[in-house]
Amino acid sequence: MKVVVIGAGVGGLTTAALLAQVGLEVTVLEHHTYPGGSAGTFWHQGFRFDAGATLLAGFDEEGVFTRLERQLGVAFPVHRLPPGEALMEVWLPDGRVVPRPVGRTPELEAQRAAFGRPVQRFWQWQEKRALALWKVAQGLPFPPADGLEFLSLVQKGLPWALNNLMDLPGILADLVRPTLAHAPNHAAFRRFLDAQLLIASQTDAADTYALFGAAALDLPHRGPVVPLGGMGAVAEILAEAVRKHGGRVLYRHRAETLRVEHGRVRAVEVVMGGRRRGEREVIPADIFVANLTPGNLAALLPSSRPLPAPADGWGAFMLHAVVPAAVVPRGALYRQWAGEGDWTFVSLADPSDTLRGPSGMRVLSASVHTPLAEWRGLDKEAYRAKKQAWQARVEHQLERIIPGFRESARLILGATPRTYQFYTRRQDGWVGGYPQVHPLRTPSPKTPFPNLWRVGETIFPGQSVPAVAMGGERVAALILGRLGVKPFPLESFTVGRSHR
């Protein structure tokens, strides 16, 4: 049985590795020269930069990457953050810097110290909802893609609903009410929530539905780690796992067209890059997995109408930089400016990680949300001017977090949604998935073709690197279920207890 996976992002590689492990003949096609896509890591002038400023979790005992290590026989190169250590620091308009430490007790203490006792009730609600959700959320087939997933949803959902019967009215209400409904009337705390949720749900506390908000705010307690060598190390290990189990990962192979006959996808037409630039190849397969946005997939299908990115979808303006280690104030590796001006999220390389660059230098990536519409239709001169203006804005915000940044920076690279579109082929440079304004916003992996599936941040679950990997697990299970193959025990896809 032949499988072609289009796109070597974390979701596509997870699916590919799990399918290869059970003996399917798997080929991954990636137009770029390294894996990971928006969660990849690239080399420039001897330094390794993360394509996006991204947090990484999912390494708790029941986390997705812990499962993948056991299942695939791999080890991800990460530094695990112990309880009490600050995962992130958030700068607020009044000058306060609020830490988010690992562990529920340390975080609650930090929140009360920053905002007072009124926030305690909010965090009690968040913990209660998050712990209930994690008992059923991992591998939850929602919305169900087929009859088997519907049956699995019922089998998982009914016992869980009975166990949470007393809380069920509140849980159901949190599907439609916003996260902000649970927050105290505290301006600084609400701004803090908006900053945190914008990272994970792509919208603020007034628009993020409360169940998703509770899960998104749980990141510091889901096995947070620092990837050594950069975020792309996760994708690189998954690519190695594909090859280890007999699959192929082919770079500089750009999928151009999917050939459809009698209601099924039969083959993909590929255009080569590198030394074989311009050469074409047709690769037939029985099953296809697209690690693509809906619009990118539609562009590969004959007779499909253009499918635009969502009007509220976001792009990212990125600033990649290298500064002397002595310039960076002590503190967390992840920092967020939530004061006036552009909200800026900064990811710093671990000072001991010499894979990212030489000792004494710190590599960082800073990310700011930017509307996709601002970057469409610009001529070369207008684009250059806009990029320069945005870079100056982000440099200004970085100066607030790292005083002396501009003067001391040894290297600065700016990247726009157009940069993402060029290197990752993502439609308009859209990143982050759909803003989580209601639970039906993110669809299932199914497509109109029975042997074509989607994976990535635009299916459920898909908001964040661990969620994309869980989506990859889901798609692998769907494919193997239809083939009648049981690759691993059912409990591999569920959390049987509220372990954090």
Give a topology summary.
Layout: E1 2-6, H1 10-21, E2 25-30, E3 41-44, E4 47-50, H2 64-72, E5 78-80, E6 86-91, E7 97-101, H3 104-115, H4 120-134, H5 147-163, H6 168-173, H7 187-201, H8 210-216, E8 225-227, H9 232-244, E9 248-251, E10 253-261, E11 264-272, E12 280-284, E13 287-290, H10 294-300, E14 314-324, E15 334-337, E16 344-348, E17 361-371, H11 380-401, H12 405-408, E18 411-415, H13 417-424, E19 452-454, H14 465-483
Parallel strand pairs: 1-2, 1-13, 2-9, 6-15, 13-19
Antiparallel strand pairs: 3-4, 5-8, 6-7, 10-11, 11-12, 14-17, 14-18, 15-16, 16-17
Mean pLDDT: 92
The backbone outline, from C-alpha atoms, is: globular
How is the quaternary structure best described? Answer: single chain
User: Can you say what the CATH homologous superfamily of the largest domain is?
Assistant: FAD/NAD(P)-binding domain
- Report the count of strand segments: 19
Backbone structural class: alpha/beta
Largest β-sheet summary? 7 strands, mixed
Unreliable residue runs:
490-500
What is the CATH architecture assignment of the largest domain?
A: 3-Layer(bba) Sandwich
Main-sheet strand order equals 7-6-15-16-17-14-18
